[in-house]
Structure formats: C-alpha cells, structure tokens
Automatic annotation (TrEMBL), chains A, B:
Keyword Secreted: no
One BP annotation, GO: proteasome-mediated ubiquitin-dependent protein catabolic process
GO cellular component entries: cytoplasm
Family of this protein: Belongs to the SINA (Seven in absentia) family.
Function: E3 ubiquitin-protein ligase that mediates ubiquitination and subsequent proteasomal degradation of target proteins. E3 ubiquitin ligases accept ubiquitin from an E2 ubiquitin-conjugating enzyme in the form of a thioester and then directly transfers the ubiquitin to targeted substrates.
EC numbers on record: 2.3.2.27
Reaction catalyzed: S-ubiquitinyl-[E2 ubiquitin-conjugating enzyme]-L-cysteine + [acceptor protein]-L-lysine = [E2 ubiquitin-conjugating enzyme]-L-cysteine + N(6)-ubiquitinyl-[acceptor protein]-L-lysine
Gene3D superfamilies per the UniProt record, alphabetical: Apoptosis, Tumor Necrosis Factor Receptor Associated Protein 2, Chain A, Classic Zinc Finger
Organism of provenance: Probosciger aterrimus
Molecular-function annotations in GO: ubiquitin conjugating enzyme binding; ubiquitin protein ligase activity; zinc ion binding
Keywords (A to Z) from UniProt: Metal-binding, Ubl conjugation pathway, Zinc, Zinc-finger
Name assigned to this protein: E3 ubiquitin-protein ligase
Length: 242, 242
C-alpha cells in the first residue's frame, strides 16, 4: 500500500513539473530553448557572509576554523562557490564543478540559451536558486538570491559567474531576460569569476535587481522564468582581430 | 565688469552642456539620436502624494483645498501630470501639454529615439527629471524620480506616460535603455495614461527601478543617460490584422 502511495506521489510530482515546464515554454516560445525547473535552497542562517568572515580571519592572521588548508593561501584555491554559508569546502577551480554536483546536487545544463524557472518565489529570505550552465566550452553558475538588504524589504538578485579566472570571464557576455504581461526586463553584463565572491557581487548591486513588486509582476503562479543566454564578448573579439 | 563675468559664466555653462551632450552621444552612438540634457526639479516637500490626498478628500466627501473645480468630477479632467506636488492645476487632456510647457517650462522633443541625459544624480530625494517626447502623432511624458520608498535608501524610478487615454496608451510600447561599462539594462512596457497617477505607477513599482548602487554603475560623472524608444505595439497590430 505504501509503495502505491509513493508511486502516486511521484506521478503527481512529474505532472506538476511537466506543467511548469510547459508554462515556461509558453513564456519563452523560441524553439530549442531548454527549460529547467529550479527549486529553492533555503539557508536557515546567513550570519556574516563568507567574504566578511574570510576578511576578518585574514586581518586577524588566522584562518576560519572550518577551513582545513595550510596558512599559505593558494590564489587558485577557491572557497565553495555554492552560496550555502555553512559549506567549509575549498578546492582548485578544476574540481569546483564536481564538488557542486556531488556535494550539493546542483544540476548542470547544456546549451547557449536556456530558461531558468525558479519555483516558490514567496519563500522568506534568505533563499537561493542555483544552477550550473555549460556552454562555449566553459561552466557558468547562475545564482538567484532573495535577500533582505534593508530589513523587512526582501529583494531578488540574479547574477552569472564563470567557473574560471577573471581573465577568462572577460571573454563572455551573459544576458538575463524576464518577459511577461507585455513587460520585458533585460540585463546584460560580463560574468564575474567564482574567484570573486558571489556575496560581494550581490552586496555591490552589480547584477539584476528586482523589488518584490517587480518580481511579482514577472512571476506566474509563484514561479519566475528567467531566459539565459551566453555569448562571447564582441569587444574582446574585436580587440583580438586588431 | 559684471557683464563680462556673466558672459564668461554663460560660455562656461554652454561648454559644460556641450561636453555632456558629446558624452551621451559617445554612449549612445547610433546616428540620428537626439540627446537632451535634463536638469533636476527638486521638490522641497512631497508630503502625502496627490493620489492619496485626492483619495482621502473623496472619502471625506470634500475636495482638496487647492482644487478650483466643481464637485462633479469630469473623468477627462486630469490633475496636473507634472510630479510637482504643489501644482493645483486641473484641465482637459487636450491642454495638458500647453500647461506643462507654459507653466512648468518642460521641454518637448521630437523623434522616435532620443537620449535623456539626467544631470546631478547625487541630489537628495525627492528629485524629479521630466521631459515631454513627441512621436507617432502623440505626446509622452518621461518621469525619472529619485525617492526614498524605504527611509534612508533612495531609489530611482523611470516611467513613460501617454498624454492620452488608457485605450490610446495600449497601442504603444516604450523602451528605456541604460548602457555603460559593458553593462546594459533594458525595460520595455506599455506606457500608462496620464489619467492614471504617476505616483501610483511608481509606488506599484511597475517601472524601471534602480538601486543607488546600480544607478552609480550606469552614471558618468553624476549624469545618467537613458535611451528612449517608442514603437506601436505589435500585439495590437497583430490583433488589428485578425
């Protein structure tokens, strides 16, 4: 009996996911776009950000207690780029992708243009929606975060980071697009490297920022569809030609 | 001597304006775009918004003391659409443009695509930058407002309104574009009619919203260049064809 109940639950989940998939397809009707349903990662406690904690530790000449490496810091060693504050992992750039997949079960998608469908936008801050995106021979990390920068006023911040160096990141441009009810909002920028901290990108506001009211205008039944496209940067191509 | 000092001041102002004009031209390099330098209108006191005041008055069965019309309200009579709170003027839609030009000295520009260059972005909230834009046989009002929706956290709100009815407004799409330092932000929407209140559009957040940090990223030496384009709405064209 329990087996049949579980089976029925799984079928219901599949129908729900399929429904959300078609909803996003309807919004982003361009052929060939992959729609990925992303469920939230709800961090129970943010406390000081990892950047602030790392800076304080460096200023005091000590390393954070959760870090297990030697005192001489290798610049290629990056703290875990998953925004879960509690993750103590550090590693070389080359193994960040496998860490994110294996430890945090973050999906990786292929294709130059995908649709990121974040569910349960109503959940209280802080909440993150994360996905990895593989294209043009590199892996990118999309982070959508709901955070209260000003107490009582949650906002949504979306940014894309390259799992690579800042020099590599300069070769790309990413675009995030919201499109609903005859309104369209597009953000284009050069991705930051994961060697820079996602927390500082968000606190600097150098990303797509949405007030709750604007997020609600673009949401459909509690889900926000963000179209993502990555291209090689034209400026760098032109410079390379010269 | 005083005459020569004033002449020198005027020449300096002209050089400064010319320099800002070329700066904006450099950012929006598309040929044929008209660049308009817009100086701020600093409202000393906002107090309750006109909408709120009007609503309260209606609820209490009285009219605001500054309004000189009869108790029977004509829906075609609009309060002054200039966001200066203290303006007591009301009039028919047909004379809104001449009121804005003559009483508030708001410039009117021609052309489907123009660049709105708002100066002195550092001024404290509340501050407005306003211009009228004439194209496709209609007049539009662009309002950029710096306002503290949350105390101590000023934000910038930009919206475009048609000096016409809501039905007429539905036939158009406006686009606001910020472009600087390899970052681009675009907002596209249907303009609202000036018969709706500009204050409520901004409080609903149904417009382009910029945090101070994002506004600084797009500003150049305290000025913000916004590219504006107006087109006839494709949806309505398609419906008309059917």
């Amino acid at each position: 009996m329990l087996f049949f109940t579980q089976c029925f639950g799984a079928v219901l989940d599949l129908i729900h996911l399929r429904f959300q998939h078609y909803k996003a397809k309807r919004v982003f009707s361009a052929a060939g776009q992959l729609v990925c349903v992303v469920n939230p990662t709800h961090s129970l406690k943010y406390a000081p950000t990892r950047c602030a904690a790392a800076q304080t530790s460096t200023e005091q000449g000590i390393l954070p207690p959760c870090h297990h490496h030697e005192a001489v810091h290798d610049p290629q060693l990056v703290p875990c780029t998953c925004p879960l504050f509690s993750c103590p992992w550090e590693g070389h750039l080359e193994v960040v992708v496998s860490h994110l997949r294996q430890t945090h079960h973050i999906n990786i998608l292929q294709g130059a243009e995908i649709v990121f469908l974040a569910t349960d936008m109503h959940l209280p801050a802080p909440t993150d929606w994360i996905i990895m995106h593989s294209c043009l021979g590199h892996q990118f990390l999309l982070v959508l975060r709901k955070q209260e920068k000003y107490e009582g006023h949650p906002q949504f911040f979306a940014t894309m980071m390259l799992i690579g160096t800042p020099t590599q990141a300069d070769n790309f441009t990413y675009r995030l697009e919201l499109n609903r009810n005859q309104r369209r909002l597009k953000w284009e920028a050069t991705p930051r490297s994961v060697l820079e901290c996602v927390d500082s990108v968000i606190s600097d506001g150098d990303c797509l920022v949405l007030n709750t009211s604007l997020a609600q205008l673009f949401s459909d039944n509690g889900s926000l569809a963000i179209g993502i496209a990555i291209t090689t940067s034209k400026v760098h191509n032109a410079e390379a030609e010269i």
